[in-house]
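User: Please predict structures.

Assistant: First:
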Amino acid sequence: MVRFRVPSYSSDFRDQSEEEGMARGRLPMRKVKKVLAYHFDEGRSARAIAAHCGIARRSVALVLERFAEAGLSWPEAGAMDDEALEGALYRRSHASEWPDVDWPSVEKALSDRGVTLMLLWEEWRETHPDGMSYVTWCRRFRQWRPRRDATMRQNRRPGERLFVDYAGMTVPLLIDGGEHEAQVFVASMGVSGRLYAEATLSQKIDDWCASHVRCFEDMAWAPIAVVPDNIKPAVIKPSRYEPVLNETYADLLDHYGVQGFPARVRRPRDKGAVEQGVLHVERRVLAPLRKHVFHDLAALNREIRARVRKLNAKPYADGTGETRDERFENIDLPHMRSLPERRWQRTVWRKNTVHTDYHIAIERHFYSVPYQYIGKEVDVRLRGQVIDVFHRGRQIASHLRGSPRGRATTLKEHQPRAHQRAGVEDTRARLEHNARNIGPHVLALVVAIMERNPNPEFGFRSCYGVLRLAGGHEPDRFDGACRYAMELGSGTYRGLDNILRTGADLTTAQETETAPIDHSNIRGPEYYR
């Protein structure tokens, strides 16, 4: 029988760190039994055993040494189950030297914000300087922990869910001498894991929705559902069963035909895909940019976009050689929805009461609604440059945004019939038509009165007065009086009325027909030259 000489290791060599390393990297029990069988049954050398089992010779020697120290016999040890054999070979002679740790207190302390196992171990080592290492501390805590949460593997359907969230890391921006913390929006497809990331100045509803729009356009397709966290721009009333989405965010999802499926509160595993995506973005995109200085958001997003593109083009480590982009095109893309022709624009809803002039005020501009709704409350939808007015769910008016403040946008069909006849342009055209029927100088006087005022409405009353005077005089005489008024520069209703009452227009006409007087006492115009 070939005897195998067990190498001896001094106590200095087998220190505590080596014991912990062996405990972490111990051989599987099936290989341990193979080593013992080859050694005792076949008498193979350590080199041959190591080559056949695919392990180091030192590992073979340590297994045989532990077997000798345990006082076990062969082949009885080969009949032991794996758990019993492992307990016999890997007992710790020095474990009793470590004081007991109050593991329940450790677990309770971990629930505090910012507390980690590393911090608790450092505090424990302050009173136990010769205690266990951090690795052993973590391993013993995991062994003690009375409960282990089971995780279920999610079999997600291709192209179904897009997971979205904000990264915990921010990027400093120096804009106009002031420092801003840019927020990083991250989105990840559930199956392919394709990533999208961009920086925004805030996490408010405008930036939140705009990031979704750009993410959809980057993919050129829309998923079936979006899984956000319970942040305020997404969810206004969290609930385990029926969360209430922000109205603007719900309108965005409805525009693209996407369902909103928020994760449960304090259940990060509901959106594990984006949590992993955030981890990749923070490590591969944001951390390498920590020493860069950015002065505008566009430059930061160009750098983020370039690094995310490289990350999506990097092969997975599962040995398939596929990238996120390839899996997205082959698996997710065929099951996604096409984008609508019109890009989403933010929709804002307001409530207004129709005033007695059948107008509502939006940003200091007035828009008409049918006069039948005077005094009633209406819903106003602001979307881009379009303003729609609803009453009890039925649309009653639609306008394009008007820019001048203090002015009104009025549709003729919204006015009562009497007010339709009082329209500015219609009134002006009617006054000019009536004046033209009397005479050309009457028309010139009416036009001059209206143009003299910056608002033609202010001259309408004077024009009505001028035309009223025409009713008591012959057309030719009245037209001449208007000509005389224009020559004098008295183009007003009051000036024309004085001319007609005094007959100044007739006197002037008679004077022009009388011959000049020739007398010796009259010097004449030649004297004054």
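Second:
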Amino acid sequence: MNFSFEHPLFLYAVFLPIPIFFIQLKRFKTIQRNYRTVDNKPFFSSLFAHSWSVFTLRAFSWIFFILSCAGISWGTDYVPIQKNGCAIAFVFDISHSMEARDVQGGKTRLQAAGEYAMALLDYLPQSSISVTLAKGNGMVAVPLTEDYQALSAIFSSLSPRLMTSAGSSLGSGIKAAISSFPSQTSLAQNIWLFTDGEETDESLEEALQYSLKYGIPVSIIGFGSTLESQVFAGDGKTTVQTALRVSAIQNVIDSVLKKNASLNKDFLPQIQFVDSNEASSAYKLLNSLKTDSSVSYEIRPIEHHSTFLAISILLLLLSFIFSETQFNFRKTFSAFAFTLVLSLCFTSCSARFYSGKKILSGKISWNRGDYSEATLAFLEAAQNAKYNSDPLSESYAIFNLSATYLAQGEKISAEERLGQISFEDSPKEIQFAILYNKGIIAHQNGNFSDASEYFKEALKINSLNLNAKINLEICLKEQIHHFQNAEQKLIPVFESKAEYASLEDAIYSILQEKEQNQWKNQQQQEESSALDY
């Protein structure tokens, strides 16, 4: 279990009870020394135990308060973020190793990377693109823009001389690229790193972990040959051996995935290596982009600030109660231990309450007509419930998400979400609501027969629902009307009198037949009674 603190400097205050402990101990020794002639050991034992129990409660109250102020968090949670559109951060490694001429045609790795990026622009959908340069540190050269001509200009002028810092820090380039994305952007974020894998500070792994935290996929595009070649270092005199470090890059990626093996892989952003020498490398890159409306997930620690603050207040109140009342030491300590264990047990239930809180928040947003906020709240509740194996909360969250889509006219998405709910395992009210909404969707699609059946099945679960009864009657009437309209056929006008006479006879026969059928139907309706829903 990984603990993290938002404000770690507060942790120094945890040690404050230690000097107070020694002051308290010195005080008791003084009292005991002054009254050692008094033969009243039970009194001193009771006073000692009572005072130390109060001190222990207040000390732990202080510790829990400091942990709350420090922003203690542990565990991980997946926060869904609705994304529309696409934003790509191009990160170029412009270290001197990229000047090695081991690319086909005698080009340097940096020239090949610039031409490769320029070619990608022709196949990219309308996207916002930023350019970050990575050398000894990272620098955003071009903020997010859709001006592809400006991008082409910098792609053709890539050089190590654009930055004066020494070394090669791929991690700083990725972190700078992440900072180039606005914090509240609705665009699906992507990072493409153009490099040979040579780095001097081994910061790539940490940066990839950082990108996972924000739910940003990273694609590393390798340039150069895997065979060693010589290149001048930054001083222009020293020669060093360099090559495309495929195994080193892959080892870093495997290490990151191994450290996050306990997380749900369905929610983790993709981290991949693409060799630019492969024929399908560009297709692999473009295929990894999510340009349509999608949901990405940020990995965030689960906060426990409020829980620790509540425990701190509770322990402080208990200390005041114990200080005003005479308690047995064993009972006092037992009560303290029970309170502490019970409070910690409540923290394990926070995930279950979290789903309910998100569903309630989504309902409030839905009632306000803020469907985007409602969608995010229901998505987060559904994923949290799924992660914590809470099928009941998951069913409620997915149904509310479906209802939100339906309110926005997205019938296909609404029907897909309803299909994700386990009908047999759901409570009766959810089963009724699923059938009811399926009836609404079928009616909107013009499938009056299917809509009638859905409403009939819904009324079998809840026969007192007035809206379902009304909707069933409407669907039955529209079904009959639709059937009658389907029977009517357009008859062409004939010019000859013989054909016209035969047409009159045919019309007369049809009308006579309809009158007979109508009389029979009326007679049958009088003899039979309809189901009373």
